């Protein structure tokens, strides 16, 4: 922490990206929070309230959903970019949750007019779609993310800027009526009171208006010209990317580096560093393939020690060993320049660790993520490594770390060919070791 603060330097005219490299929940919120003192602007570029970015500092634990993780830093400006989808109802609650911190949110949080709105009927459509899929359900957080992005690409969506139009309510009605017909088409039983949901929505929309709406691509590019530094904050993880993830068990946005360009209006040649965040092991919440998932004691220990429950839905996360095949893939797709390893402390106590270094795929050994990654096609090939016993949570320097952990870190760096710059050994800002 100390090092990061003292190291304040502006990356003139460039943007750095911070992304999750696995299936989300890597601990991005903590790292953005730790890094924010280095940046003038923190910008979220995709996803919505399906995210839950947990920050812990000074004994306080707080979960952010749509608001960027720089909100707790004094001087950082926080932007919700055009690539994000906003549910005014969830957003209102999030703003209310910040009241106890005595900050002037309106002065440091701006929203893109081009960000799309999640309507109450989007949430219902999400529920209807999942219910109709039965066993094949995605395991969505049911926040209306998929249906909202469908309306965006289908050119039917409502955007934040539309709130300022006189006929916003009529536009809303037209779309909501269409959604109701679609919900009926699914032919599943849903209990809901749309009138109540809509009252709540329109009250929240009035509250949303208290914040400043901006043309965020204009704002950000102007800031760049003025020499300001920007950190783009991703949500979910690379393996949930709609193009490169384990489709169809993915979210509906581009969670990878390219998504930061389209989700903020920033050109690729303005991007400098790409910080890739990964856990020392792997977790996944929801359905879909997970080659290194451990159904035995090791997986259970990781879940228990790592407190692996979803910060949004409370669902238990599936746990397993580190998958270097998947990590290499994510590093490649994102152009990662620095790795940040989270939750190293959770692995303390294992006699041995397994690391996946290849897949057995239809009788062959491969080292990339194939099109058919389902369990019947892919079996992980593990390399065994020595574990360590020491409790890491109080350690503050790289030198203090046990030799076995250093070997684990060096092995990952060699395989993935990118340096690990930060090792996180606990949830608090202070439990962050620079290498
Ligand atoms: P949706 O984005 O809510 O539709 O969910 C699609 C898939 O992505 C489900 O498997 C979710 O569990 C997963 N997912 C969505 N957001 C997150 C997140 O922030 N962390 C981890 N998994 C997520």
TrEMBL record:
Its EC number is 6.3.4.4. GTP binds at residues 24-30, 52-54, 317, 343-345, 424-426. Substrate binds at residues 311-317. Its main location: cytoplasm. IMP binds at residues 25-28, 50-53, 141, 155, 236, 251, 315. Keywords: Cytoplasm, GTP-binding, Ligase, Magnesium, Metal-binding, Nucleotide-binding, Purine biosynthesis. GO terms for molecular function: adenylosuccinate synthase activity; GTP binding; magnesium ion binding. Its cofactor is Mg(2+). One of its GO terms (cellular component) is cytoplasm. It is an enzyme of class 6 (ligase). It is found in: Cytoplasm. Gene3D superfamilies: Adenylosuccinate Synthetase, subunit A, domain 1 (3.40.440.10), Adenylosuccinate Synthetase, subunit A, domain 2 (1.10.300.10), Adenylosuccinate Synthetase, subunit A, domain 3 (3.90.170.10). Homodimer. This is Adenylosuccinate synthetase. It comes from Flavobacterium cucumis.
């Amino acid at each position: 922490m100390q090092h990061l603060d003292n190291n304040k330097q502006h990356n003139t005219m460039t943007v750095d990206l911070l992304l999750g490299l696995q299936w989300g929940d890597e601990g991005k919120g903590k790292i953005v929070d730790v890094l924010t003192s280095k940046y003038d602007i923190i910008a979220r570029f995709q996803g919505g309230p399906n995210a839950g970015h947990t920050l812990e500092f000074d004994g306080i634990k707080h979960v952010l959903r749509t608001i960027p993780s720089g909100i707790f830093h004094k001087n950082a400006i926080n932007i919700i970019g055009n690539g994000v989808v906003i549910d005014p109802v969830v957003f209102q609650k999030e703003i209310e949750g910040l009241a106890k911190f005595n900050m002037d949110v309106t002065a440091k949080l701006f929203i893109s007019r081009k960000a799309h709105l999640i309507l109450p009927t989007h949430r219902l459509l999400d529920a209807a779609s999942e219910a109709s899929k039965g066993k094949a359900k995605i395991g969505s957080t049911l926040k209306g993310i998929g249906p909202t992005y469908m309306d965006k690409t289908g050119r039917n969506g409502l955007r934040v800027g539309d709130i300022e139009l006189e006929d916003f309510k009529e536009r809303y009605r037209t779309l909501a009526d269409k959604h109701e017909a679609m919900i009926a088409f699914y032919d599943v039983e849903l209990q809901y009171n749309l009138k109540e949901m809509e009252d709540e929505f329109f009250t929240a929309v009035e509250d949303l208006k208290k914040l400043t709406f901006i043309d965020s691509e204009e704002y950000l590019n102007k800031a760049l010209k003025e020499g300001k530094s920007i950190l783009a904050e991703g949500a979910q993880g690379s393996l949930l990317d709609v193009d490169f993830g384990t489709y169809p068990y993915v979210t509906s946005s581009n969670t990878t580096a390219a998504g930061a360009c389209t989700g903020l209006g920033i050109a690729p040649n303005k991007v400098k560093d790409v910080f890739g965040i990964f856990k020392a092991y792997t977790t996944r919440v929801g359905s879909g393939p997970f080659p290194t998932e451990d159904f035995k004691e090791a997986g259970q220990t990781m879940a228990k020690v790592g407190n692996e429950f979803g910060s949004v839905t409370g669902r238990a996360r599936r746990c397993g060993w580190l998958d270097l095949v998947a990590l290499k893939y994510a590093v490649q797709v994102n152009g990662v320049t620095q790795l940040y390893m989270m939750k190293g402390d959770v692995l303390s106590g294992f006699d041995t660790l397994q690391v996946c270094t290849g897949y057995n795929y239809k009788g062959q050994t491969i080292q990339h993520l194939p099109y058919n990654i389902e369990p019947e096609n892919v079996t992980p090939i593990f390399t065994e490594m020595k574990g360590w016993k020491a409790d890491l949570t109080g350690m503050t320097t790289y030198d203090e770390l046990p030799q076995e952990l250093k070997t684990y870190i060096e092995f990952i760096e060699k395989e993935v060919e990118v340096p690990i710059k930060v090792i996180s050994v606990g949830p608090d800002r202070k439990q962050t070791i620079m290498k």
